[in-house]
Amino acid sequence: EPIDLYIAAMEGLYGRLAVAVPEPTRLAQIYNNLHPQLQDRLALCSIQTLEQLRSMGRRAEAGRLSMVRIRPATTRENTLEPDLAYHDQNHPRKPLSGRVASVQS
User: Average pLDDT of 40-44?
Assistant: First the structure.
């Protein structure tokens, strides 16, 4: 779930308690229950408030989502430099035809 929804849900739960929980305690508990990838990205930031956690968490999520959207080239043979093309680890490489895609003199 997005970090905004998670923080809002946790704040709602804290709001139901009879005793108010200090923000540093809430911050630590919310941070420790984040997705490990978000914790890894946020570890480099100095986060003192829930608003900072929300803001930095949005940025970290945006970075993670942009990494998920990366798609390799469709065919290795059609790339300019086939030897430098992305190779899926799950599929073996096909031998190249030996043709040169471009030549610079």
Answer: 89
H or E stretch covering 25: helix 23-32
Contact between 87 and 76 (Cβ < 8 Å): yes
Please count the other Cβ atoms lying within 10 Å of the Cβ belonging to residue 22: 8
Distance CA 104, CA 55 (A): 48
- The CA-atom distances, in angstroms, between 19 and each of 3, 12, 16, 22, 26 are 25, 13, 9, 10, 13
* In the chain, where the domains are located: 3-68
pLDDT in tens, 46-82: 999 999 999 999 988 887 665 656 566 556 566 677 6
Mean per-residue pLDDT, 83-105? 64
